[in-house]
Design the sequence.
Protein backbone atom coordinates (compact mmCIF):
# COMPACT_ATOMS: atom_id res chain seq x y z
CA UNK A 1 0.00 0.00 0.00
CA UNK A 2 1.37 3.39 -1.01
CA UNK A 3 2.47 5.38 2.04
CA UNK A 4 0.24 8.34 1.15
CA UNK A 5 -2.81 6.08 1.37
CA UNK A 6 -1.70 4.77 4.76
CA UNK A 7 -1.20 8.28 6.11
CA UNK A 8 -4.51 9.47 4.69
CA UNK A 9 -6.23 6.52 6.40
CA UNK A 10 -4.53 7.36 9.70
CA UNK A 11 -5.81 10.94 9.45
CA UNK A 12 -9.35 9.99 8.41
CA UNK A 13 -9.57 7.62 11.39
CA UNK A 14 -9.22 10.62 13.72
CA UNK A 15 -12.69 12.23 14.10
CA UNK A 16 -11.44 15.81 13.85
CA UNK A 17 -14.75 17.62 13.47
CA UNK A 18 -13.99 21.34 13.52
CA UNK A 19 -12.35 22.77 15.58
CA UNK A 20 -11.09 19.49 17.07
CA UNK A 21 -7.79 18.30 15.63
CA UNK A 22 -8.07 14.86 17.29
CA UNK A 23 -4.30 14.31 17.19
CA UNK A 24 -3.79 14.78 13.44
CA UNK A 25 -1.23 17.56 13.80
CA UNK A 26 0.78 15.69 16.44
CA UNK A 27 1.03 12.71 14.09
CA UNK A 28 2.22 14.91 11.23
CA UNK A 29 4.59 16.93 13.41
CA UNK A 30 6.35 13.79 14.61
CA UNK A 31 6.85 12.56 11.03
CA UNK A 32 8.23 15.87 9.82
CA UNK A 33 10.44 16.29 12.89
CA UNK A 34 12.11 12.99 11.97
CA UNK A 35 12.62 14.37 8.46
CA UNK A 36 14.53 17.36 9.84
CA UNK A 37 11.77 19.96 10.04
CA UNK A 38 11.58 22.56 12.80
CA UNK A 39 8.19 22.24 14.52
CA UNK A 40 6.19 25.07 16.07
CA UNK A 41 2.73 24.59 17.56
CA UNK A 42 0.59 27.75 17.49
CA UNK A 43 -2.61 27.16 19.48
CA UNK A 44 -5.15 29.97 19.70
CA UNK A 45 -8.27 29.42 21.77
CA UNK A 46 -9.65 25.93 21.04
CA UNK A 47 -7.83 25.77 17.71
CA UNK A 48 -4.56 23.99 16.96
CA UNK A 49 -2.20 25.30 14.30
CA UNK A 50 1.06 23.74 13.14
CA UNK A 51 4.04 25.41 11.45
CA UNK A 52 6.70 22.97 10.21
CA UNK A 53 9.65 24.43 8.29
CA UNK A 54 12.89 23.31 6.68
CA UNK A 55 15.72 25.55 5.47
CA UNK A 56 16.05 29.28 5.95
CA UNK A 57 15.66 32.60 4.20
CA UNK A 58 13.89 33.41 0.97
CA UNK A 59 12.03 32.35 -1.02
CA UNK A 60 9.51 30.83 1.40
CA UNK A 61 7.21 28.16 -0.08
CA UNK A 62 4.29 27.02 2.09
CA UNK A 63 1.81 24.17 1.73
CA UNK A 64 -1.42 25.29 3.41
CA UNK A 65 -4.01 22.83 4.71
CA UNK A 66 -6.48 21.96 7.43
CA UNK A 67 -6.99 18.89 9.58
CA UNK A 68 -10.57 19.64 10.64
CA UNK A 69 -13.59 18.25 8.81
CA UNK A 70 -17.30 19.04 8.65
CA UNK A 71 -19.80 16.89 10.61
CA UNK A 72 -20.75 13.60 8.99
CA UNK A 73 -24.50 14.07 8.86
CA UNK A 74 -26.56 10.92 9.50
CA UNK A 75 -24.03 8.11 9.97
CA UNK A 76 -26.62 5.53 8.94
CA UNK A 77 -26.73 7.12 5.47
CA UNK A 78 -23.07 6.23 4.86
CA UNK A 79 -22.19 2.92 3.23
CA UNK A 80 -19.44 2.55 5.86
CA UNK A 81 -18.45 4.35 9.05
CA UNK A 82 -17.21 7.83 8.03
CA UNK A 83 -14.29 7.59 10.46
CA UNK A 84 -13.28 4.07 9.46
CA UNK A 85 -11.37 4.63 6.21
CA UNK A 86 -12.51 2.09 3.66
CA UNK A 87 -11.30 1.34 0.13
CA UNK A 88 -13.99 0.19 -2.32
CA UNK A 89 -13.84 0.09 -6.10
CA UNK A 90 -10.58 2.03 -6.24
CA UNK A 91 -11.81 4.83 -3.97
CA UNK A 92 -10.86 5.75 -0.41
CA UNK A 93 -14.01 6.59 1.59
CA UNK A 94 -14.25 8.59 4.81
CA UNK A 95 -14.99 12.07 6.10
CA UNK A 96 -12.15 14.32 4.98
CA UNK A 97 -10.85 11.97 2.29
CA UNK A 98 -11.14 14.75 -0.32
CA UNK A 99 -11.47 17.80 1.94
CA UNK A 100 -8.69 17.71 2.76
CA UNK A 101 -6.89 14.92 4.58
CA UNK A 102 -5.90 13.32 1.29
CA UNK A 103 -4.09 16.49 0.24
CA UNK A 104 -2.54 16.92 3.69
CA UNK A 105 -1.13 13.38 3.50
CA UNK A 106 0.23 14.17 0.04
CA UNK A 107 1.84 17.36 1.40
CA UNK A 108 3.68 15.36 4.04
CA UNK A 109 4.97 12.81 1.55
CA UNK A 110 6.00 15.56 -0.87
CA UNK A 111 7.92 17.39 1.85
CA UNK A 112 9.69 14.25 3.05
CA UNK A 113 10.74 13.38 -0.48
CA UNK A 114 11.79 16.93 -1.29
CA UNK A 115 14.15 17.37 1.66
CA UNK A 116 15.55 13.84 1.18
CA UNK A 117 16.40 14.68 -2.45
CA UNK A 118 17.45 18.28 -1.81
CA UNK A 119 18.74 18.58 1.79
CA UNK A 120 20.49 21.85 0.94
CA UNK A 121 17.70 23.44 -1.09
CA UNK A 122 17.54 27.21 -1.31
CA UNK A 123 15.09 29.16 0.80
CA UNK A 124 12.47 27.68 3.12
CA UNK A 125 9.83 25.04 2.55
CA UNK A 126 7.05 24.77 5.11
CA UNK A 127 3.69 23.29 6.03
CA UNK A 128 0.98 25.33 7.75
CA UNK A 129 -2.02 23.44 9.15
CA UNK A 130 -5.06 24.58 11.11
CA UNK A 131 -8.07 22.91 12.73
CA UNK A 132 -10.33 25.93 12.09
CA UNK A 133 -10.91 26.07 8.33
CA UNK A 134 -14.32 24.43 8.26
CA UNK A 135 -15.55 26.43 11.25
CA UNK A 136 -15.48 30.11 12.11
CA UNK A 137 -11.94 30.59 10.76
CA UNK A 138 -11.19 33.00 13.60
CA UNK A 139 -8.42 31.30 15.60
CA UNK A 140 -6.83 29.46 12.69
CA UNK A 141 -4.84 30.90 9.78
CA UNK A 142 -6.27 34.37 10.42
CA UNK A 143 -4.57 34.43 13.85
CA UNK A 144 -1.42 32.73 12.56
CA UNK A 145 -1.02 35.48 9.96
CA UNK A 146 -1.30 38.09 12.71
CA UNK A 147 1.45 36.20 14.58
CA UNK A 148 3.59 36.07 11.43
CA UNK A 149 3.23 39.79 10.84
CA UNK A 150 4.34 40.48 14.41
CA UNK A 151 7.27 38.06 14.20
CA UNK A 152 8.41 39.13 10.73
CA UNK A 153 7.71 35.80 9.04
CA UNK A 154 6.96 36.33 5.34
CA UNK A 155 5.62 33.98 2.65
CA UNK A 156 6.49 34.18 -1.04
CA UNK A 157 4.60 31.20 -2.45
CA UNK A 158 1.62 29.30 -1.05
CA UNK A 159 -0.18 26.25 -2.42
CA UNK A 160 -3.30 25.00 -0.68
CA UNK A 161 -4.64 21.52 -1.36
CA UNK A 162 -8.34 22.36 -1.36
CA UNK A 163 -10.22 19.92 -3.64
CA UNK A 164 -10.34 22.02 -6.79
CA UNK A 165 -10.42 19.49 -9.63
CA UNK A 166 -13.74 19.04 -11.45
CA UNK A 167 -13.74 15.82 -13.50
CA UNK A 168 -10.14 14.63 -13.44
CA UNK A 169 -7.10 15.41 -11.33
CA UNK A 170 -5.39 18.62 -12.44
CA UNK A 171 -8.11 20.03 -14.68
CA UNK A 172 -8.46 23.20 -12.59
CA UNK A 173 -6.00 25.57 -10.95
CA UNK A 174 -7.60 28.09 -8.61
CA UNK A 175 -5.79 31.45 -8.91
CA UNK A 176 -8.08 33.67 -6.85
CA UNK A 177 -11.19 33.85 -4.75
CA UNK A 178 -14.01 36.30 -4.23
CA UNK A 179 -14.26 38.06 -0.89
CA UNK A 180 -16.93 37.18 1.65
CA UNK A 181 -18.91 39.54 3.86
CA UNK A 182 -21.78 38.46 6.10
CA UNK A 183 -24.36 40.50 7.92
CA UNK A 184 -27.18 39.91 10.40
CA UNK A 185 -29.81 42.60 9.90
CA UNK A 186 -32.40 43.27 12.58
CA UNK A 187 -35.34 45.43 11.49
CA UNK A 188 -37.39 46.72 14.41
CA UNK A 189 -41.14 47.27 14.23
CA UNK A 190 -44.02 47.39 16.70
CA UNK A 191 -45.77 44.17 17.68
CA UNK A 192 -49.56 44.09 17.48
CA UNK A 193 -52.71 42.29 16.42
CA UNK A 194 -53.05 41.55 12.71
CA UNK A 195 -56.61 42.90 12.78
CA UNK A 196 -55.31 46.33 13.84
CA UNK A 197 -52.32 47.02 11.57
CA UNK A 198 -52.69 50.77 12.14
CA UNK A 199 -51.65 50.17 15.76
CA UNK A 200 -48.53 48.16 14.82
CA UNK A 201 -45.58 48.41 12.48
CA UNK A 202 -44.74 45.25 10.55
CA UNK A 203 -40.94 44.94 10.16
CA UNK A 204 -41.29 42.23 7.50
CA UNK A 205 -43.39 44.50 5.27
CA UNK A 206 -41.02 47.40 5.89
CA UNK A 207 -37.92 45.37 5.06
CA UNK A 208 -39.23 43.83 1.83
CA UNK A 209 -38.73 46.81 -0.55
CA UNK A 210 -35.16 47.38 0.66
CA UNK A 211 -34.30 43.69 0.50
CA UNK A 212 -35.81 43.45 -2.99
CA UNK A 213 -33.59 46.33 -4.11
CA UNK A 214 -30.48 44.71 -2.65
CA UNK A 215 -31.32 41.34 -4.24
CA UNK A 216 -32.05 42.83 -7.66
CA UNK A 217 -28.98 45.05 -7.85
CA UNK A 218 -26.24 44.03 -10.29
CA UNK A 219 -23.36 44.90 -8.04
CA UNK A 220 -20.66 45.05 -10.71
CA UNK A 221 -22.76 46.90 -13.30
CA UNK A 222 -21.45 50.32 -14.25
CA UNK A 223 -18.28 49.84 -12.25
CA UNK A 224 -15.68 48.17 -14.48
CA UNK A 225 -12.85 47.30 -12.15
CA UNK A 226 -9.51 45.61 -12.61
CA UNK A 227 -9.76 41.82 -12.46
CA UNK A 228 -13.56 41.64 -12.39
CA UNK A 229 -13.73 39.83 -15.75
CA UNK A 230 -11.83 36.90 -14.24
CA UNK A 231 -14.37 36.40 -11.45
CA UNK A 232 -17.98 35.27 -11.21
CA UNK A 233 -20.30 38.26 -10.64
CA UNK A 234 -20.45 39.82 -7.19
CA UNK A 235 -23.53 38.46 -5.44
CA UNK A 236 -25.83 39.39 -2.56
CA UNK A 237 -27.73 36.39 -1.16
CA UNK A 238 -30.21 36.12 1.71
CA UNK A 239 -29.66 32.84 3.56
CA UNK A 240 -32.08 33.15 6.47
CA UNK A 241 -35.13 35.17 7.55
CA UNK A 242 -36.75 34.86 10.95
CA UNK A 243 -39.67 36.74 12.50
CA UNK A 244 -42.86 36.18 14.42
CA UNK A 245 -44.09 34.33 17.49
CA UNK A 246 -45.51 31.36 15.62
CA UNK A 247 -49.03 32.68 15.93
CA UNK A 248 -50.87 33.70 12.75
CA UNK A 249 -52.60 36.67 14.36
CA UNK A 250 -49.59 38.55 15.72
CA UNK A 251 -47.60 41.17 13.80
CA UNK A 252 -43.97 40.62 14.88
CA UNK A 253 -41.94 43.25 16.64
CA UNK A 254 -38.70 42.46 14.84
CA UNK A 255 -37.40 40.66 11.76
CA UNK A 256 -33.92 39.14 11.47
CA UNK A 257 -32.30 38.66 8.07
CA UNK A 258 -28.96 36.86 7.54
CA UNK A 259 -27.21 37.60 4.26
CA UNK A 260 -23.86 37.22 2.53
CA UNK A 261 -21.88 38.97 -0.19
CA UNK A 262 -19.39 37.20 -2.45
CA UNK A 263 -17.56 40.02 -4.17
CA UNK A 264 -14.85 40.79 -6.71
CA UNK A 265 -11.49 42.54 -6.17
CA UNK A 266 -12.93 45.91 -7.20
CA UNK A 267 -14.98 45.97 -4.02
CA UNK A 268 -13.89 46.17 -0.41
CA UNK A 269 -16.00 45.16 2.57
CA UNK A 270 -16.27 48.73 3.85
CA UNK A 271 -17.71 49.90 0.52
CA UNK A 272 -20.37 47.21 0.50
CA UNK A 273 -21.31 47.96 4.09
CA UNK A 274 -21.68 51.64 3.19
CA UNK A 275 -23.97 50.87 0.23
CA UNK A 276 -26.19 48.55 2.28
CA UNK A 277 -26.61 51.15 4.99
CA UNK A 278 -27.44 53.80 2.39
CA UNK A 279 -30.18 51.58 0.91
CA UNK A 280 -31.73 50.75 4.27
CA UNK A 281 -31.58 54.40 5.37
CA UNK A 282 -33.26 55.52 2.17
CA UNK A 283 -36.18 53.17 2.94
CA UNK A 284 -36.54 54.67 6.40
CA UNK A 285 -35.97 51.47 8.37
CA UNK A 286 -35.23 51.30 12.07
CA UNK A 287 -32.50 48.68 12.11
CA UNK A 288 -29.08 47.45 13.21
CA UNK A 289 -26.53 45.22 11.44
CA UNK A 290 -23.88 42.94 12.92
CA UNK A 291 -21.17 42.59 10.24
CA UNK A 292 -18.59 39.83 9.84
CA UNK A 293 -15.78 40.39 7.35
CA UNK A 294 -14.75 36.92 6.27
CA UNK A 295 -11.91 37.96 3.98
CA UNK A 296 -11.12 40.22 1.05
CA UNK A 297 -10.84 38.89 -2.53
CA UNK A 298 -7.50 38.08 -4.09
CA UNK A 299 -6.08 37.28 -7.52
CA UNK A 300 -2.67 35.75 -8.23
CA UNK A 301 -1.47 37.05 -11.57
CA UNK A 302 0.94 35.34 -13.91
CA UNK A 303 4.10 34.63 -11.93
CA UNK A 304 6.59 31.97 -10.89
CA UNK A 305 4.14 29.89 -8.81
CA UNK A 306 1.33 29.92 -11.33
CA UNK A 307 3.73 28.94 -14.14
CA UNK A 308 5.33 26.17 -12.08
CA UNK A 309 1.97 24.69 -11.08
CA UNK A 310 0.65 24.84 -14.65
CA UNK A 311 3.75 23.15 -16.11
CA UNK A 312 3.71 20.30 -13.58
CA UNK A 313 -0.04 19.76 -13.93
CA UNK A 314 0.22 19.55 -17.72
CA UNK A 315 3.12 17.08 -17.51
CA UNK A 316 1.82 14.94 -14.65
CA UNK A 317 -1.95 15.10 -15.27
CA UNK A 318 -1.97 15.33 -19.07
CA UNK A 319 -4.42 18.22 -19.14
CA UNK A 320 -4.14 21.99 -19.47
CA UNK A 321 -5.77 23.30 -16.29
CA UNK A 322 -8.59 25.81 -16.34
CA UNK A 323 -7.22 28.74 -14.32
CA UNK A 324 -10.15 30.42 -12.60
CA UNK A 325 -11.44 32.09 -9.45
CA UNK A 326 -14.70 30.23 -8.79
CA UNK A 327 -15.92 28.46 -5.71
CA UNK A 328 -16.36 29.65 -2.17
CA UNK A 329 -13.58 30.69 0.20
CA UNK A 330 -10.48 29.09 1.63
CA UNK A 331 -7.74 30.01 4.08
CA UNK A 332 -5.75 31.28 1.08
CA UNK A 333 -7.64 34.56 1.59
CA UNK A 334 -5.56 35.21 4.71
CA UNK A 335 -2.21 34.39 3.08
CA UNK A 336 -2.62 36.45 -0.11
CA UNK A 337 -2.65 39.84 1.70
CA UNK A 338 0.85 39.05 2.98
CA UNK A 339 2.03 39.62 -0.59
CA UNK A 340 2.31 35.93 -1.42
CA UNK A 341 1.54 34.28 -4.74
CA UNK A 342 -1.25 31.81 -3.91
CA UNK A 343 -2.82 28.97 -5.89
CA UNK A 344 -5.09 26.07 -5.01
CA UNK A 345 -4.82 22.58 -6.46
CA UNK A 346 -6.21 19.34 -5.11
CA UNK A 347 -8.44 16.29 -5.72
CA UNK A 348 -11.84 16.13 -7.42
CA UNK A 349 -14.41 18.00 -5.34
CA UNK A 350 -17.61 16.17 -6.36
CA UNK A 351 -18.08 14.40 -3.01
CA UNK A 352 -16.87 17.01 -0.52
CA UNK A 353 -19.12 17.63 2.51
CA UNK A 354 -21.41 14.85 1.24
CA UNK A 355 -22.34 11.42 2.55
CA UNK A 356 -19.78 8.83 1.34
CA UNK A 357 -17.06 11.41 0.70
CA UNK A 358 -14.20 9.80 -1.20
CA UNK A 359 -11.05 10.27 -3.25
CA UNK A 360 -9.73 8.03 -6.03
CA UNK A 361 -6.79 5.97 -4.80
CA UNK A 362 -4.79 6.31 -8.00
CA UNK A 363 -5.21 10.10 -8.04
CA UNK A 364 -4.19 10.41 -4.39
CA UNK A 365 -1.09 8.32 -5.11
CA UNK A 366 -0.10 10.80 -7.84
CA UNK A 367 -0.46 13.92 -5.71
CA UNK A 368 2.81 13.80 -3.71
CA UNK A 369 4.96 13.86 -6.86
CA UNK A 370 2.91 16.74 -8.30
CA UNK A 371 3.34 18.78 -5.13
CA UNK A 372 7.04 17.93 -4.82
CA UNK A 373 7.83 18.90 -8.40
CA UNK A 374 6.13 22.28 -7.98
CA UNK A 375 8.41 22.99 -5.02
CA UNK A 376 11.43 21.79 -6.95
CA UNK A 377 10.77 24.29 -9.73
CA UNK A 378 10.86 27.12 -7.20
CA UNK A 379 13.43 26.08 -4.57
CA UNK A 380 16.11 24.20 -6.56
Sequence:
Amino acid sequence: MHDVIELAQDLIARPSVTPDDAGCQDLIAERLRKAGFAIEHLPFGPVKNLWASHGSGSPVFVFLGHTDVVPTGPVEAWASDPFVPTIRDGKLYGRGAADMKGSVAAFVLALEEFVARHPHHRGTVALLLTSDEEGDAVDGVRRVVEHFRASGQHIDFCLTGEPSSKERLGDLLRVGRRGTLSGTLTVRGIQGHVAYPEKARNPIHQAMPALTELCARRWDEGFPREGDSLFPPSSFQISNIHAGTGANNVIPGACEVVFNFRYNPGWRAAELERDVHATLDRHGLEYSIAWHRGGEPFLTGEGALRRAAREVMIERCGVVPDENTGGGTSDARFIAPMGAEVVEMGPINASIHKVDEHVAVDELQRLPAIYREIVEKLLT
The longest strand covers residues 179-188. The longest helix spans residues 97-117.
